[in-house]
Design a protein that fits this description.
Blueprint (H helix, E strand, L loop, with lengths): L1 H24 L5 E4 L5 E4 L6 E3 L2 H9 L6 E4 L13 E2 L9 H6 L4 E5 L6 H7 L4 E4 L4 H14 L3 H22 L9 E4 L13 H8 L3 E2 L13 H7 L3 E4 L4 H8 L9 H4 L3 E3 L2 H4 L6 H12 L1 H4 L4 E3 L2 H9 L6 E4 L13 E2 L8 H7 L3 E5 L5 H9 L4 E4 L5 H14 L3 H22 L5 E6 L13 H8 L2 E3 L13 H7 L3 E6 L3 H9 L6 H4 L3 E5 L10 H12 L5
Parallel strand pairs: 3-4, 3-6, 4-5, 6-7, 8-9, 8-10, 10-11, 12-13, 12-15, 13-14, 15-16, 17-18, 17-19, 19-20
Antiparallel strand pairs: 1-2
């Protein structure tokens, strides 16, 4: 009796597992489904050996957690996916001969329509399950993701991905929903130099639509028709979209094309490029592609409306980009105190008021690697607050990168480009003015007790050099080393720069004046510079560089 009861319990457990599996994954195998060509494809068992004939399918399979079950890919798949250890079966437009795929003994080949459709009949003859993925709209992409999830027994993951995509797409649509159709951007999606464009039956047509644009050739019932320049001029697009990785080179190339450069969109600079790895791939990341386009179509709709800055550098850049109207809170150490009276004070850089920030419901919080504690950042993120961490600064190129990145996030790209241009122009002016002058040995003092200075891996060292000086501590082993007065006396600098933080500057100046043997003292070459223009990693560093250059070589300014 006991043996019978034990067996009954085991049988019940097995039955429960089967029922749970059936509930989660749907129909058990074998499964018969229709692919994009309308063919009935029967999958006998959950696939263990999958071949992918196009990069977007490989991306989808990996996103579904099936990387280990993918045994074969095309050579193009390696651009966006790790294909180490996978068999390569040719390029996506010309997959390997059927015999080679057959040799690999796959239990599922996930293919794409169009050029690969003729392979279907050959695979059918060999009884190899050959499922063709060929969506015409974004919704069809998501439907087929679910279908692939079903036939690969990954329905929960497929559902999770599709739900995420739908949620993001709905949020994107809300951004431009109020824009009347007649005022939405008319877009020319240019595929190649032979004027191949996007027609109504390409999924890219729907991507443009989901991003709030209108494809000017959606009246052509074809995937990728070739049109004439005259027809393009008749359509008069507001925006031209390329698919090269380097946008600058794409635009430069386009503006050299006779006739094309005369289009209104070209004359007004309304051109953009998005990598084919995004816009040409109908995959599980399609929502990200739509968002990329929508942000470029209507940047003002995506700009964060409520910004919090945890660092003076970020605050300074926000003001320089003219984005301060959306800045709602700053730390007490942020610059421009007279301008920040109307902003919420959320504490110090190292100890911001986390609870207060959460109640402000910001769209984004800017923090920096060098200024803010990771614990503060983690607390905000754990509360669902979006925190963007700005990279550490070592030189002016890093400053330009920070400004460019914040310009992208704040939808102030043109302002960022102009700011960077002006900064570079001023730096070149300083360099030219001091180029013929002798380089003075300089000591820069940051702290008092102990004295701290900077080495060559800091932007302050770069400021000293471009201003016509040479940092005596540049070869120190750490970025901000302690430096004794005896070491300074031995190196005997021509000039001393004291970075002022409150009353400390005047006191430091008096102490140095006691060392009568120093060249800097004898030549009255000691100055105090406001920390706001030399310590804050923002646009006002140019002002700091100008002050240092004028101090070292006043005869040139």
């Amino acid at each position: 009796m006991k043996i019978f009861m034990a067996r009954a319990k085991i049988a019940l457990i097995v039955l429960s597992l089967i029922l749970i599996s059936h509930f989660i994954y749907g129909d058990d195998f074998p499964i018969t489904v229709k692919d994009a060509l309308g063919r009935e494809v029967t999958i006998k068992n959950a696939p263990q050996r999958i071949a992918s004939t196009i990069p977007s399918n490989t991306e989808m399979l990996y996103d579904l957690g099936l990387k280990d079950k993918v045994i074969a890919v095309t050579s193009h798949c390696g651009v966006t996916s790790d294909i180490a250890g996978k068999a390569v079966i040719g390029g996506w437009s010309k997959p390997a001969i059927v015999e080679k795929i057959e040799e690999l003994n796959p239990d599922l080949v996930l293919a794409f329509g169009g050029l690969q459709s003729p392979l279907a009949s050959e695979m059918d003859k060999r009884n190899i399950p050959f499922f063709v993925f060929f969506p015409k709209t974004v919704d069809e992409i998501l439907e087929q993701v679910l279908l692939v999830g079903k036939i690969t027994r990954t329905t929960p993951k497929a559902t999770e991905i599709v739900d995420r995509c739908k949620k993001n797409l709905n949020e994107i649509e809300k951004k431009f929903m109020a824009i009347p159709l007649e005022k939405r951007l008319k877009c020319l999606r240019l595929m190649s130099t032979e004027a191949r464009v996007i027609g109504a039956t390409s999924f890219q047509n729907d991507i443009i639509k989901k991003a709030g644009g209108i494809n000017v050739f959606e009246d052509i019932n074809d995937d990728y028709p070739i049109v004439t320049l005259e027809r393009v001029k008749e359509k008069d697009p507001d925006m031209i979209i390329f698919n090269r990785d380097d946008e600058k080179k794409a635009i430069e190339w386009f503006l050299k094309q006779d006739g094309w450069r005369d289009l209104r969109a070209a004359r007004e600079g309304r051109m953009m490029s998005i990598s084919c790895d995004y816009i040409c791939h109908p995959n599980t990341r399609i929502d990200k592609t739509v968002e990329m386009l929508a942000r470029r179509f209507y940047p003002e709709k995506f700009a964060p409306a409520r910004i919090v800055s945890l660092n003076p550098s970020a605050t300074e850049i926000i003001y320089a980009l003219n984005a301060d109207k959306n800045l709602i809170a700053v730390t007490q150490f942020c610059p421009f105190p007279e301008l920040l009276k109307e902003k919420e004070n959320i504490g110090t850089i190292l100890g911001p008021d986390i609870e207060r920030i959460i109640t402000l419901k910001p769209d984004i919080v800017f923090a920096t690697v060098e200024g803010n504690r990771q614990s503060s950042i983690n607390s905000l993120r754990n509360s669902g607050i979006k925190v963007f961490i700005l990279d550490e600064i070592h030189d002016f190129n890093d400053i330009y990168g920070r400004i460019d990145m914040m310009g992208e996030i704040l939808q102030m790209k043109n302002n960022a480009d102009q700011l960077i241009f002006e900064m570079k122009k001023k730096i070149e002016y300083i360099k030219q003015k001091v180029a013929s002058r002798p380089r003075l040995k300089v000591f820069l003092q940051l702290g008092a007790e102990p004295i701290v200075t900077v080495n060559k891996n800091t932007i302050m060292n770069e400021i000293i050099e471009l201003a016509g000086g040479e940092n005596i501590a540049k070869n120190a082993s750490i970025r901000y080393p302690k430096y004794g007065r005896e070491a300074v006396v031995i190196q005997n600098p021509d000039a001393i720069i004291i970075v002022s933080m409150g009353k400390f500057g005047e006191e430091a100046l008096k102490k140095w004046q006691m060392y009568k043997s120093l060249k800097a003292v004898q030549n009255n070459k000691i100055c105090i510079i406001d920390s706001n223009v030399i310590c804050h990693m923002g646009p006002r560093l140019i002002e700091g560089a100008q002050k240092v250059a004028k101090f070292l070589h006043p005869e040139e300014f």
